[in-house]
Amino acid sequence: MSHENSANLANSMILASPGAKLLSLWLERYRTYNSSEWGIHSTYVPWDLAKRHPHLIQVVENRFVNPDLTDIGLVYYGHYDISRNLGLHLYTRFLRKPLPLVGVAKWDSSLGLVWREILFGAPEIIACN
Question: What is the Cα–Cα distance from 112 to 110, expressed in whole angstroms?
Answer without folding.
Answer: 5
